[in-house]
Design goal:
Blueprint: H1 2-8, H2 12-34, H3 43-55, H4 60-67, H5 69-78, H6 81-100, H7 110-129, H8 138-149, H9 153-168, H10 174-196, E1 201-207, H11 211-222, E2 227-232, E3 239-247, H12 252-262, E4 267-273
Antiparallel strand pairs: 1-3, 1-4, 2-3
Helix pairs in contact: 2-6, 2-7, 3-4, 4-6, 5-6, 5-8, 7-10, 8-9, 9-10, 11-12
């Protein structure tokens, strides 16, 4: 069952579903909230809205499609054709949804609107980025930097938007720029949270004289494999087997019960891991 779910990450249907849902949520946030308050959206869509406001020509959805052309050239040459096609689909869904669908939320308080818009737009962008594509725009640059230099996507968003809004201070109302920056900050944080969702694991180390019995019960009851690490006690110089297990947060308490049921004097160490790739866990993402 786990293997089949992992294989879905490479299926066309699964990726198109993620991209469609995420793009609709993103367009809903930008048109339904940001447009009503004249917020400056983050990223390339923000640049598109800024061009629309300054020139009065076309709408932001059309500018977004036009400005994506150089980004797709980068996607073709530096990532893959599949990534390009998925990103093109995301861009079209976002642009058409923004232009055609009558989204409108009535949120009068500007700060509440900024936080809500940031949360929704970040969730939408994050959902798309969980696929093998992107939203286009600066997402292409973010994926390239993440793949080559391990720069977090949310961090890149924040840096890019700080530069964008710094420029906007010279042309737009300062209060509007500040509230738009709040929206961008919330959006960047939500993107990181959505990308980390379902990927975070706990790495546990168990030091116990009953490590073999614990490992057997973990395999039998939790259906999780373990690894023995050979160690030596620093004080008594005796060899010691350390049991290492990677587990999700839901199963952590059950593992803790198994450990201390067998050995009340065991040492139980838990570490957060951002992502675990391989074996029966997440499949390596290849664009």
């Amino acid at each position: 069952m786990t293997l089949n779910f992992r294989e879905h990450t490479y299926s066309v249907c699964y990726n198109l579903c993620l991209i469609t849902c995420g793009s609709l949520v993103y367009a809903l946030a930008i048109k339904g909230i940001a447009l009503n308050h004249n917020f400056i959206p983050a990223g390339l869509f923000g640049i598109s809205v800024l061009i629309q406001q300054l020139t009065g020509l076309l709408d932001a959805g059309s500018w977004y499609i036009i400005s994506n052309i150089p980004m797709f050239a980068l996607a073709w040459t530096m990532i893959s054709r599949r990534f390009l096609l998925y990103s093109l689909f995301a861009m079209l869904v976002t642009g058409l949804s923004y232009s055609l669908l009558p989204f409108n939320f009535v949120i009068n308080n500007q700060l509440y609107a900024a936080v809500t818009c940031g949360a929704l737009s970040g969730a939408g962008a994050g959902i798309v980025l969980r696929s093998l594509g992107s939203n286009g725009g600066i997402d292409v640059l973010a994926v390239i930097l993440f793949q080559r230099f391990n720069i977090g996507i949310g961090r890149f968003y924040l840096i890019f938007n700080l530069v964008l809004f710094a420029i906007c201070f010279f042309t737009l109302d300062a209060d509007l720029v500040i509230v738009s920056l709040i929206m961008a900050f919330v959006s960047a944080k939500i993107v990181d949270q959505v990308l980390a969702m379902f990927s975070e694991r706990k790495m546990t180390l168990v030091i116990s004289r009953q490590s073999q019995q614990i490992a057997d019960e973990v395999l039998e009851k939790l259906k999780i494999g373990s690894t023995f690490l050979e160690g030596t006690g620093a004080f008594n110089k005796k060899p010691q087997r350390v049991l290492m297990t990677v587990i999700n947060n839901i199963q952590l308490k059950r593992l803790e019960e198994i450990v201390f049921m067998h050995d009340p004097d065991a040492l139980f160490i838990v570490e957060n891991t951002f992502n675990v790739i391989g074996s029966s866990f997440s499949k390596r993402k290849i664009y």
